[in-house]
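Appendix B, example 12.
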Amino acid sequence: MLRWLGRNALRAYTGLALIYLLLPIFIVALFSFNDPIGRSNYSWASFTFDNWLTLFRDPTLVSAVGISLRIALVSTIIATTIGTLMAMALVRYQFKFRKGIDLFIFLPLATPEIVLGASLLTLFVTLRIPLGEITLILAHVMFNVSYVVVTMKARLAGFDMRLEEA
């Protein structure tokens, strides 16, 4: 019995963890086919495809999706550019505060996103920076640049400099 438990405990735990993580997503997807009575969607009323067939009927939803895609595109381009240049500098050159910069690069990765978002909102409000697309782009760049730097540092560590120079 203990041998069987030892072999299958990790599988059981992994299965339970996946169910725990994926169940809310499944429930949200399921309730997207609900036709609620009124504005709340807490209890199942009836099945419908109308929510998906008229997805882009609401102009505010279309506008929000457009803004989200624009912010994603711009912040991705900026974060990729800055992160790649930072990674090249960290891999190719030796300088005094390199270890400290590595610490500050890993800091956003270890900080929960909600704490990072609340901190940036507090910073923008304190500095009286008007909230809008620019602050959203800055926040996304600040969060994403760490991922780019870490990934590019790993790729550039074994990269042949002669190929880069060519």
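Residues 89 and 153 are 9 Å apart (CA to CA). The helical segments are 2-31, 50-53, 59-92, 98-110, 113-126, 133-157, 161-165.
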